[in-house]
Amino acid sequence: MLSQAQRATILELHGQGVGKREIARLLKVSRQSVRQVLRANSSAVPQIERAEKATPFRQQILELLPQCKGNLVRVHEELLSAGATFSYQALTAFCRREGIGQAPVVPAGRYEFSPGQETQHDTSPHEVLLGGRKCQAQTASATLCYSRLLFFEILPTFQRFDCKVFLTDAARYMDGTTERVMIDNTHVVVLRGSGRAMEPVPEMAAFAERLGFRFVAHEIGDANRSARVERPFHFIENNFLAGRTFVDWQDLNHQARQWCDRVNATYKKHIRAVPRELYAVERPLLKPLPAWLPEVYRLHHRLVDVEGYVSLHTNRYSVPPSFIGRQVEVRETRDHVEIELDARHIVRHRRIATPDQVRVTLPEHRPPRGQGPCKRDPHPEETALLAAAPEIASYVENLKRRGRKVIALLLRQLLRMLRDYPREAFLGAIEEADRYGLYDLDRVERMILRRVTREYFRLEDSDD
CATH class for domain 4-40? Predict the structure, then answer.
């Protein structure tokens, strides 16, 4: 079909006296088309008026579409069974022209951001090769909307603690914060509501206030609102993660930081600029960070087990033996785990990022094999016994090992016997008990009484 411009050209050439054959040759159209245009004597493209085969079935199509859950293939099958004779292509063309079962096409928009106005933050799952093993991880990314400065980290999990750690690192990398941070209604930040009605968790709201920004969320289904941060995820997966291996999480994020520095200094065709150069314009308009930015931490309370370890996320961290059975405060930061008994007794471990059931033991918390713990001070009763009767030292040592009562009670009873009975009878009975391996102090006391003669308990005569 000839366009309106071609029709106008044909009429103009005919008015100049050019023949029909020559017009057809010049415009490379058929002479019949030239005749039809001259016969109509109008440059307007005529409307095609013909009945569509699906028009009589319009009402049936509207009724069948929700029953078939919007599947036009099933609608066509039902119409054929009802006597329709048109093709599936005719059905889809009719529905497309009539706007049946199709959302109206809306033109795409464009978001413009001024310097220091907004940062967009989002996460995406990725698979990384860590220490020769594939691991599922979460890539957290933040982008300055004006300069497109990119910062990302890859973490094993992404909870509120990880979110605060990441946003703190991003603020340090960007050397400031914007007025707002756009999120995608994630439960890590959102307490209730969505979009403009979103209310952040008080913990996250206080964190944002300390850094000088506020959280906002886009409407559900409006993913284009956060396109500044969504676009780099494909680049990260197919450029940074492609063919790279990492020793551990620390090595991974160290390489990610170097990659961000290199990418931010590279010319981008879609913005026709270098992000670092645009950042130089945006940097003075960012909100400065506080003079002191505290380290993000998670607080736990634990009871030290009988082996001298504290359990945290299935991993176990050693403490000195004096901590056993006592309640401690565990402070978990990004890189370390601090176990505090009191202000003077603090143990510091390197944090294990994943719950791998690892046991971390510091050398100073476990003595070398065969050395054992330091000996305790002797009981006061033992000191008094050895000071008064050094001859019974071997018997006292064997009594502590083989006695059937509490050691303190045994030593206390033996000291009483030494003080109550004559020394000769006491030492003789102890010597005999040591020779025969007798450590029942009740029997030893009866042996002492048998050795005591009448002269030790002489009664004075009474006057009858």
Answer: mainly alpha
